[in-house]
């Protein structure tokens, strides 16, 4: 068996004729874990693999979502150029044509209804740099005050609670490495073990240090299973 594995490994190495490295970050949760995607081109196929890069938040960890995050970029059905609907069907067009149509329609709308008649909608997976450029594009190029992102709805409840409890509506109120130094942690309506798995070691180390963890969630999750107390609210209780 060992000999077969060695032969297979050597065959795989010979099959790689060209190799490229792309440093990136995972877009799937707020941890934004750093990673390197390795593209290996051979005579018969191109394959990819992902390795984690060290960073102060996830401490060099990647979850299964991060490991496979590259797949949406190389999927065969990915849209790689603008599509314009003609007679009910999308047809490929050039970027020059697409941008000219967008400019014409935006200009007509703003001339008729004012600059705030258009808005910009971003995404929570954008990097800080891209989010900054998107904001500049909205305020400077389009001159609109309406810019938002898809995290508004999923974070509205958390923002309201944080405002009432701490007076701020964004981000953590402490550093991640301080989690394991706390006496008690309350996790309300969150399933960190599945949604942000790369920071679970902080909570595991906290438990080892004697921290009591309380999970408030109607569901039984991997997070609730590691808690000291699981407060399993009924749906009718959550409506009040």
Automatic annotation (TrEMBL):
UniProt key word rRNA-binding: no
Gene3D superfamilies per the UniProt record, alphabetical: 3.40.50.740, ADC-like domains, Dimethylsulfoxide Reductase, domain 2
InterPro entries reported for this sequence: Mopterin_OxRdtase (IPR006656), Mopterin_OxRdtase_4Fe-4S_dom (IPR006963), MopterinOxRdtase_cofactor_BS (IPR027467), Prok_molybdopt-oxidoreductase (IPR050123)
Known cofactor(s): Mo-bis(molybdopterin guanine dinucleotide)
UniProt entry keywords in alphabetical sequence: 4Fe-4S, Iron, Iron-sulfur, Metal-binding
4Fe-4S Mo/W bis-MGD-type domain segment(s): 19-77
Assigned GO CC terms: membrane
Pfam family, one: Molybdop_Fe4S4
Residues annotated as transmembrane: none
Keyword Iron-sulfur attributed: yes
Gene Ontology molecular function, alphabetical: 4 iron, 4 sulfur cluster binding; metal ion binding; oxidoreductase activity
SMART domains membership: Molybdop_Fe4S4 (SM00926)
Source domain of life: Bacteria
Protein name: Assimilatory nitrate reductase large subunit
Species of origin: Halalkalibacter hemicellulosilyticusJCM 9152
């Amino acid at each position: 068996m060992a000999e077969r594995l060695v032969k297979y490994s050597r065959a795989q190495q010979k099959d790689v004729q060209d190799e490229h490295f792309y440093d990136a970050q995972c877009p799937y949760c707020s941890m934004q874990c750093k990673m390197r995607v390795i593209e290996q081109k051979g005579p018969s196929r191109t394959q990819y693999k992902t390795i984690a890069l060290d960073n102060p938040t996830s401490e060099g960890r990647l979850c299964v979502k991060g490991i496979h995050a590259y797949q949406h970029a190389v999927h065969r059905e990915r849209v790689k150029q603008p599509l314009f609907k003609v007679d009910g069907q999308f047809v490929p067009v050039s970027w020059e044509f697409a941008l000219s149509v967008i400019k014409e329609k935006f200009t007509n709308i703003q001339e008729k209804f004012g600059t705030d008649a258009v808005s910009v909608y971003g995404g929570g997976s954008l990097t800080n740099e891209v989010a900054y450029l998107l904001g500049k594009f909205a305020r400077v190029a389009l001159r609109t005050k309406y810019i938002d992102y898809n995290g508004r709805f999923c974070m509205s409840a958390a923002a309201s609670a944080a405002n009432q409890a701490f007076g701020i509506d964004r981000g953590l109120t402490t550093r991640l490495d301080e989690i394991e130094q706390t006496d008690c942690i309350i996790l309300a309506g969150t399933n960190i073990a599945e949604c942000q798995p790369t920071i679970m070691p902080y909570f595991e180390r906290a438990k080892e240090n004697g921290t009591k963890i309380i999970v408030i969630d109607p569901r039984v999750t991997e997070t609730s299973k590691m808690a000291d107390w699981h407060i399993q609210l009924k749906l009718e209780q959550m409506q009040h």
